[in-house]
Amino acid sequence: MRLVAFALLWVPLLSAQQPESKPPERRIEQPAEQPGAPKDQKLVERDRKLQKVVDELVPLVEKYAELEFPSPPKVRAATHKQWRELVAKELKPDSTGKLVATSMMMLGLYVPDPDPAGTGEIVLSPMVIAPLLKELGEDAPRHHRLAQTHQKATLAHELAHALQDVHFALPKKMKRLLAAGDDDWLRYKYVLEGHAVFVEERVAEGGLGLEDFMQTGPYVGNFDPSYANGWRFCRRVFEQGGMQALEAALKDPPPLREILEVGAEARDDRADDQGDAKRGG
Ligand SMILES: [Zn+2]
Question: Phi and psi of 121, rounded to 5°?
Answer without folding.
Answer: -130, 145
